[in-house]
Amino acid sequence: MGPFAIARSSSLDDALEATAQPGAMLIAGGTEVLNWLKEGIVAPSLLVDINAVPGLADVQADASGLRIGALARMSDVAAHELVQRDYPAISQALLKSASPQIRNMASMGGNLLQRTRCAYFRADTPLPCNKRVGGTGCSARLGEDRAAAIFGWTDHCIATHPSDVAVAFAGLDASVELLSAQGVRTVALDGFHLVPDRAHASETVLQPGEMIRAIHVPASAAARNSCYLKVRERASYEFALVSVATAFENDAGTIRGARLAMGGVAHKPWRLRAAEAALEGTSIADDAALRRAIEQSFAEARLGRHNRFKVELGIRAAVRAVQIAGGRA
Amino acid sequence: MSAIGVATNRVEGRAKVTGAARYTGDIVAEGLVHGFIVGSTIASGRVLDIDFSRAREAGGVLRVFTHLDMPRLRSLASPPAGDTHLPMQDDRVLYEGQPVAVVVSETFEQAREAARLVEVTYDRSDFLTDFAGNLSRAEHRPLYGMPPDTQHGDPDTFMQRGDVVVGATYATADRHHVPMEPSVTMAMWHGERLILRDAVQGVMLTRNTVAQALGIEPSQVEVQCEFVGGAFGCTGFIWSHQLLAAALSREIGRPLRLTLTRAQTFTAHGYQPASVQTVRLAATQDGALLATRHDSLLAGSVAGGHVEPVGWGTRSVYACDNAAVTHRVVRLNKGNPTPMRSPIEGIGMVATEIAMDELAFELGMNPLELRLRNYTDTDLAHNRPFSLKRLRECYSEGARLFGWPQTLPPPATLQDGRELVGYGMATAIFQTFRSEASARVTALQSGRIRVETGTQEIGGGTYTVLAQVAAEVLDVPVANVDVVIGDTRLPEGPISAGSRVTLSAGSAVQAAARNLLTRFGEVGRPNGESLAAALQRLNLDELSADGRWQPEQESRFSLYSFGAVYAEVGVDKDLAIPRVRRVVGVYDAGKIINPKAARGQMTGGIIWGIGQALLEKSEMDHTLGRFLSKNLAGYLVPVNADVPDIEVQFIDGFDAEAGPLGARGIGELGGIGIGAAIANAVFHASGRRVRSLPILPEHFLGQT
């Protein structure tokens, strides 16, 4: 990596001002930014360290919902008693992410800003990749696409988003609080990440000079009955082949208000809206009906050459997740 | 005082876990500069131009070398060189990652950053990297100078006479060694004398090979290597980065350290080549093997001649009078493959032992019973008896510890919750490699014993084992013995490859220690007097003796280590992910010198095999002609959560034919058998026969 300066901000105002400078980039836990620096994916002239900014690491829960500060560490959120009780999918997703060492460092805001693990994007040397160098094409499109998306991809990019907890957030209708010198705005988590498009290079709606301040999750009976299932070849310390967050009310064995989000299948956490609608009123005990309902969302899957298995695996994983949340584990 | 056979803590363990152990990258020389390799980004062609003007201007950069000013090297055979295509000798590019320039800077980070600024223009040629798509290009080439095809009996005739014949094709993947420590070489010249601090598996081989390449005498080169942070075969031979460090340090006139990045380790020092192996077995109704064929296609390289002899074990493992083994290689635009734990049988026995499982099910026979039915005390391929072979006890003790059933339930009938459960077993064999070795043992007046031999510690426990051997002979505590290895100024010791060090260097140390006792007798030490007391009484600071061991050229016996491996696997019935639930491995490797280190080594080998069976696969992109994921996020090895209860036992014995210690090799053995045992258990669990490792969810979900 090339030489760069580090500025330590001690207030939000400081941080926002420093971030507005050309070539500046925020750093919190650093577990992801350092990867980018080492591989030459980014070359900021200034890193703005926000770890000392007060109040950004709080986790607060009340009857209306959960507010997670952007600097809260993954491990702290995962271990939070009220998170575990009222939002189990969040805790489960976090505990299935990375390693204990990384979770102790990595911030919740930074987690949402991870970039794809696509091997072409992460290569030791720049390969043709629109995410790495705009306009160079997508090597994975005609190359090794086993890990690639099956939903929402374009010829511009077929990679997936790596975050686990973002999938849980999407399934729990979370929103993200964004702060800039102009003020605060809130966007739905489901609208925070963008599917790839030639028209823009961004992966999120975050604007220059803007930072994540907090994540909000509304409280609900469904959230209390949520779960996160992650499928991967290696038992730990590995990104998902596919993952599922599910939340619904269990009305004496009948599904009400189902929400399903998947990871490992798109450039963002992917809500299975058709499946959610079809699951309404379905009996948790009826495996065939669960499968039929979930298949509704896979009709729109578009497959590459080596990732066809993600459809069957995704359907089975989603069925399993609903069964688990329905108490049939 | 007994030291051999006693479970002994590693003498260097404390230094390693406290960080006191000095690895090659920890060593700093006065005036040290750093080299960074610029690797080719194309897989085949020629370098037309290298523009390093921007790199040359970058902070700290001293010089940029290319093929135009790189000193000429003398040609090397492979082995001992890893590639026969030596670095930066001309403009030809044979594989992606091949060195095309070296940036030398004051710091590593400066060199690495400046390397990004080097602009290389290529004339690209067509290339081949796709092994599976080019099997028809397989060539007949020698393996280690030996014929690729061997045969005994008349396999073609007897293949027709089987009551039952099974035949199938099995595939294994390109795998990388990925040791924890990426290779580091530091070169320093003192006039005409070269000192290399290098993390290698063979200081002596490195000295001789580097000297040959540079056109100087081995006596002008010293190689030192105190610790190696894992090697697994990748630093057995001598590779470009070592030659570059040695040659360029001389050019620059300062000590030069060349450190590989993790990504560079994927192209700098070999890998285990992918294989496609066809095994055919013919048997009588009661399971007696009549004929065996093992025809292998191996990935190879245009930059070297490595052909992995995967079929060698198949010739000898069972009582089969008619067997043929062939090897063909597809030479690709990739760096040369190289031995990797576990070579030879570690790849070939995957195919043979899955085929045996298929035969057992075809015959309706317990897979263990089939192995016992074909047990042999004679190596029929070489027509000579095995030396000490206690594989029968391995089978039975393993079956007892595992609870291997007399009658296996039919496949896909055992279930535990949502997991389908299955059992699998396999035989492990590994031929015994031995090397001539010399050692010196010295008794000091302080009571300490110094053991010196020019081998090296790569993590297996060599420091400890050699101390135990000396302590046993001299009747002193192991704690009183200081082992000095990893230096070419010491008596010639063996390379740490092919599981030979304990047997070879240990025998030399034993001889030297015995000679030392003889010398003490000659100078008048009475029986019962301690060595230290004798030295004090005689007013001698120290007394030394040399020892040497040389294995006979051609043994009357066939020397192999053996094992029986049993695995229980669960496969989620919906999610199709196999997980190993428990493993039992029972091994016969003659005398076990240090049961504690040996158990650790076998456990590590079994974990290595879990990787082979379920995780490890180096994907290539055939448009770009490169290994795709050159890091440990993209190349999966098992983590603790993948590792179940592993029980390791040894059938202790004394193999006098192998050497005076009675020991044979174990390091490679642990990685053998386990891959097939897991694959067989996956079949028993799921009813699905997967013939390609690693076993992936798509094998169960209708797409491979």
Automatic annotation (TrEMBL), chain A:
Keywords: FAD, Flavoprotein. GO terms for molecular function: FAD binding; oxidoreductase activity. It holds the Pfam family CO_deh_flav_C. The keyword rRNA processing does not apply. InterPro entries: CO_DH_flav_C (IPR005107), CO_DH_flav_C_dom_sf (IPR036683), Diverse_Substr_Oxidored (IPR051312), FAD-bd_PCMH (IPR016166), FAD-bd_PCMH-like_sf (IPR036318), FAD-bd_PCMH_sub1 (IPR016167), FAD-bd_PCMH_sub2 (IPR016169), Mopterin_DH_FAD-bd (IPR002346). The lineage of its organism: Bacteria, Pseudomonadati, Pseudomonadota, Alphaproteobacteria, Hyphomicrobiales. PROSITE patterns: FAD_PCMH. SMART domains: CO_deh_flav_C. It comes from the Bacteria. Residues 1-222 form the FAD-binding PCMH-type domain. This is Molybdopterin dehydrogenase, FAD-binding protein.
TrEMBL record, chain B:
GO terms for molecular function: iron ion binding; xanthine dehydrogenase activity. Keywords: Molybdenum, Oxidoreductase. It comes from the Bacteria. It is an enzyme of class 1 (oxidoreductase). InterPro entries: Ald_Oxase/Xan_DH_a/b (IPR000674), Ald_Oxase/Xan_DH_a/b_sf (IPR036856), Ald_Oxase/xanthine_DH-like (IPR016208), AldOxase/xan_DH_MoCoBD1 (IPR008274), AldOxase/xan_DH_MoCoBD2 (IPR046867), AldOxase/xan_DH_Mopterin-bd_sf (IPR037165). Residues 18-126 form the Aldehyde oxidase/xanthine dehydrogenase a/b hammerhead domain. Its EC number is 1.17.1.4. PANTHER family: ALDEHYDE OXIDASE 1-RELATED, XANTHINE DEHYDROGENASE. This is Xanthine dehydrogenase, molybdenum binding subunit apoprotein. It comes from Chelativorans sp. (strain BNC1).
